[in-house]
Structure formats: C-alpha cells, structure tokens
Amino acid sequence: MKEDKIGLKEAISIGIGGMVGGGIFAVLGLAVALAQGGTPVAFLIAGIIAFLTSYSYAKLSLKYPDRGGTVKFMNVGFGIGIFSGGLNNLLWISYVIMLSLYASAFGSYAPNLTNITGDATIDSHIFMSFIILLATGINYYSIKVVGKIESYAVIIKLVILLTFVVVGIYGLFGNENLSQLAVSNWEAPLKLITGGMVIFVAYEGFELIANAAPGIKNPERNIPRSYYISVLFVIALYITIAIITVGSLPFGDIAKAEDYVLAEAAKPLLGKVGFTVITVAALISTFSAINASLYGGSRVSFELAEDDELPHELTKYCWNQPIGLAITAVLTLIIANTLDLESISTAGSIGFLLIFAMVNYVAFKKASEINGNKIIALLAALLCFTALIALIAQQVESNLTGALIAIGIVVASFLIEFIYKKTEKKSKTSD
C-alpha cells in the first residue's frame, strides 16, 4: 500500500505545532523573572541557536530520511554504541521532561477555571496527574484520535495566540508599562543569555520534522523550507508575545502570575473574557502537546530497543501500544509532581542543548556527505555547547538542586547504556 505524502504546509504545521505546544505558556513568566525587560532578547538568543541548529537538521534529514529522526542521526554520526545510546536515552528522558513541563503548565492554568466558575480551588498536582492519565488513556485507545486532537489543537491555539498578538500590539499604544522594555530594565548580558537558555525548551519541537522526512513530498525543496519557515515564524511569535506581556503588565503583576502570565497579560487588553480565552487556549495547547509527546516518547524508546540500545522488552506491545508508553507516562507523573517549574525547564533545556550540539557536530562531521556548510554546523555546535556551559554555571549559583538533577539525568542516561551494554555482552558470552 502506497504511503500518503505530506506537502510543505503540513510539514511546517508539524514544526510549528511541535514548538508552540505548552512551552510558551509554561516558561513565559519564568523568562520575565530571569531577563526582566530584556525578555524579547532572551527569546531571540534562544531562537538564533534553534535556527542555526535547524540547518543541520535540514541537511541530515535530506541525506538520512528516517522515522527515527534524531535517533538515526546519532547512530549515523557515532555508530551504535555506548555514546550514541547514552545520547538517545537522554533524548527519551528529555521528552519525558517536556511532558512534565506541559503537565506543570496545565496544572498552573487549570485552577484559573475553577476560580472563574466560583468552585473551590483544586490542587494543581491533581490537574497534572489527571491530564497525564487522560492523555495516556487516549493514546491506548486510538492513535487516530491523538492525530485528530493535535490537528484541531494546532489551529485553535494559533488562532487564539495570533488574535492575542493583534489585539496586544494595538493595546501597547499609550500603555504606561511600555517603558519596562527600555534597555535600562534589561538584565546583564550574561543573565539574558542564561535566561534564554533556561527557556530554550520553548523551541524544542522543530526536530519532529525529521521524523516525518520520509513522507514529505519534493524533499529537496520542502524539507529545508519547512524547518526554516517554522522556526522563523515561532521566533517572531515568541518575541512579539514577550514584548506585549512586558509592555502590558507591571513586573510585580507578572511575578504574582508567573505560572499563568499569558492569561494575566490578556486582562488589560480583553478583560476577564481575554483571561478566560487564553486560559482555555493554554489548556488545549498543553493537553495536545502531552497527547502527541506521549506517543513520540514511546516511539523513541521503541526505536532504541530495536537498535539494541535498550532492552528488547521495550519492543513488546501492551494493549496494542509499545510498553514504552506506560513507562513514559509513569516517569512523567513522578517528575511533574516532584520538581518545580524552573528545575523541569532547566533539565529540559540542558538535555536538548546537549542533543542539538551533538546533532550539529554530526552535520559538521558529515558535511561533505550531506552537502552541508561546515562553518554553519560548527558555529551552531559551539553556540549550543557555550550556552549549555553558561546555563549550568548560572543554575549552579541560583538553583543548585535543579542543576544537580539535570546533570544527574545526563549522567544516568549514559550510565544506563553502559550497564546495559556490559550486561548484554556478558549474556552473549555466557550463551
């Protein structure tokens, strides 16, 4: 049976949908807390690194189109071994961290609806756990339902966010808080950079185009364009949202509503209706992101088991889905209910910065094979590494527990692979 191919619009939708999931709703308040008036600059810095990395992804996707996406690139670049296996384990855990971030955002926005309706406020952890379990149930019920929810959710959240942008830009004229964007209110350059790196997870998602690469029509033309257009669109969207938020609300109000600041930013523009609409948009976005990422995370674990980088038991199915789905859901429940938002965001950013640095290095290493520019790939790799080191250094000072957890996750990813390979080798020797 011939597989249906997707065009440029669908490929761009995958990239935008992957990035504009729950990230912007979760980390916007955190970004303002770290960068203050320089928040738009922080999003720009993170966006530049994402855009340069998308070049490497575009070139690698053209040369090695595979449903495994990033997993394939690691194995091609480093061979199937402990190093590539450790990186791919980190990719899986990073997806779990992203799921936790989305669940945390859902748990922060959901109580707003109970306040609006006059009901007693329910603990955010109950909302977090509920949405993870609901999305897991839907994934087990039908993958087609997951796809339908995602396709509708992408349209809804983009329409609402773009409406917010249009109304927000109009509302900035004459707003007394506009002065908060002045350079005098920016944090120091190093803090702007590290602020941008903490919220780098908001750009995670464009790499999902790589997983769809084998099914994209006219790949030579459409694969690069889908990466570049989707990343540039999201950079512009995030910067505009940051400008509107900082220019509409006093810093004190932003700090009070840090976990649901986008809804609070809609209040001066559209009143209680705007607050409610953005809250609903956040719930739809984070739910759809959890729904899609659960499936994506389970597929990563399945690919790793098939490539002999994790136990083959992970290729087994339970209720018509890979067993990795249940493991991914349980890990998400634990992380979402244990870590605070900044620690989750930091761990996710550290994981993806390291992964993207390695993908850029693979593009540099394979430049002649993929017809790529070595300078761009090397620059992107160096920027990812530099940003990674700066982020770790900043978090060690300001959030030591979060930094240690993130570093521990990276170490554990490689340690698990090392132990598995050694155990597997002994097993084969004894046989």
Structure description:
By secondary structure, the chain is an all-alpha fold. It has a single domain, classed as Amino acid/polyamine transporter I, CATH 1.20.1740. Helices cover 78% and strands 1% of the residues. The chain has helices at 8-19, 23-35, 39-63, 70-78, 82-117, 124-141, 143-172, 189-198, 208-212, 219-248, 251-256, 261-306, 324-336, 341-365, 367-370, 374-398, 400-430, and strands at residues 317-318, 321-322. A two-stranded antiparallel ribbon has the order 1-2. A hairpin with a 2-residue loop joins strand 1 and strand 2. Helix 2 (23-35) packs across helix 5, helix 5 (82-117) packs antiparallel against helix 14 and helix 6 (124-141) packs antiparallel against helix 13. The mean pLDDT is 85.
Structure summary:
Helices cover 78% and strands 1% of the residues. The protein is mainly α and 431 residues long. It has a single domain, classed as Amino acid/polyamine transporter I (Up-down Bundle), CATH 1.20.1740.
Distance between the termini: 41 Å
Number of domains: 1
The H/E string reads HHHHHHHHHHHHEEHHHHH
The low-pLDDT segments are: none
Instruction: Using the alpha-carbon principal axes, give the shape.
Output: globular
CATH homologous superfamily annotation: Amino acid/polyamine transporter I
CATH structural fold name: Amino acid/polyamine transporter I
- Share of residues in strands: under 5%
Going across the biggest sheet, name each strand in turn. Answer: 1-2
Class by SSE composition: mainly alpha
Kindly state the number of beta strands.
Answer: 2
Please estimate the helix content: over 70%
Number of helices: 17
